[in-house]
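User: Sequence in, structure out. Go.
Assistant: Echoing your sequence, followed by the structure tokens.
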Amino acid sequence: MELAKTIRNIPDFPVKGILFKDITTLLNDKKAFKTVINRLTASFKDKGIDYIVCAEARGFIFGGALAYKLGCGLVPVRKPGKLPYKTYTYTYSLEYGKDSLEIHRDAFPPRARILILDDLLATGGTTLALVNLVKKLGGKIAGIGFLIELTGLKGRNKLRGYSLYSLIKF
């Protein structure tokens, strides 16, 4: 299945000059969504993953389904003020601004094997924030996965030294 064909392009969203990759059309296609989860499962099933760490909101969609298939825990990372317990915060740059993410301080035990999962790799800022939060808790990054990678933005360069997997590259 050509998953790229199930993704809609939205020009000038959220700001002028950005070509947004709208995955809602992929999510609406039950065969495409199932294919995504099955391919991600095949890619990470032998990595000994203890927890999947994913950022809101679209990362949760894939993270929850994949955690179920892999039989591991799920760690939601959210914007400031959304998690109810003690957190660590990391602030980072986006291709169109700045943002911050938080993780619970007790999200997983030290040395846990972590898969970082998100819907999109663009400039790498969000993923680097996730990497830093995982490191803060003493987790071992077993891999980093994405539905989409925008290769022209070179986000992969910020993540050298980690095993990266992208299902779709634009």
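User: And one key feature?
Assistant: The chain has one domain: 47-169.
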